[in-house]
Amino acid sequence: MLKTFVPFLASIVTIILLYTLGIFIDVEWLDFSYRNEYTTAEGRGLEVGGSILPIFIGLGVGFLLERIL
Asked: Over the stretch 19-62, which tens digit does the pLDDT of each residue have?
């Protein structure tokens, strides 16, 4: 059980850490952001955007840690 839990936890922690760094240091390729847009003609719109790079890096960390363990 420890062999599967530790890589999963490391993957989740890495993803959260990279997104947090992207927000606080303002690195666009590590950032997750949203923007509300208000227009008079259409009412309200929402635009959500974010990088998937932290997810790929987190999955890579989990995969490598599983191979090491």
From this structure: 999 989 988 888 877 766 666 666 667 677 788 999 999 999 99
Q: Residue type at 69? A: L
Residue ranges making up the domain that contains 63: 2-68
pTM, to two decimals:
0.78
**CA–CA dist 61, 18 (Å, integer):** 12
Number of structural domains in the chain: 1
d(CA 48, CA 20): 17
